[in-house]
Amino acid sequence: MNVVSKHKTLTQAKDSFSKSNYKNALEKFAIVLQDFPNSKEAYNGVILSEMALSGEGGAEALFDYYEILKDEDKEQADKIISDILQTMDGTLDKLGEIFAEPLKDRLEFEDGILYKDFKDLIENGADFKETFENIMFSTRVIITQKEDFIDFLDNLIEHGFAEMALTYLENALSIYPSDELLTKLFQKLKIEFR
Predict the structure, then answer these.
(1) H helices of the chain, where?
(2) Most buried in the list 2, 89, 174, 191, measured by CB within 10 Å?
(3) Reported confidence tier of residue 66, pLDDT bands at 50, 70, 90
């Protein structure tokens, strides 16, 4: 599995944001978030970049405030900015749009396999577990549809990758806390771990 250099890409993203190149900043933060889904810095950067791109006032000031806070206490800074962003109207909906757009733009040059193509392999007789393990160490599965994401999680659970599914699911639920399908899948997963 190809993994981006987290520190280098975050530095590029922050530099782009500082130069008001919000589209590039958004793409860089999203790339980090793809490989490091628990990165609060990338998550917050994606939202701040999207806010700046859509002309929402205060994104630049929040970004500067975030950078100052990080110099004092990075973990506390992540929490403070996350709390601020979570209270802002429409943040969760915007995050969904963010994930949809950059992925479509990046498909042409991203090293990965579309989930649709992965499913075609399985439907043509390949073993899910073996195929996924081979792909997992050489490339990434690119998911662009919510239905595919749900199907992917369901397959991970069904084929013995429950812990990995739980990680993906926890991240998704932090973005979409009231989503019924994700909640049902989470309940299914909790039963798996009993």
Answers:
(1) 6-18, 22-35, 40-53, 59-72, 74-87, 91-106, 115-123, 128-136, 146-158, 162-175, 180-192
(2) 174
(3) confident
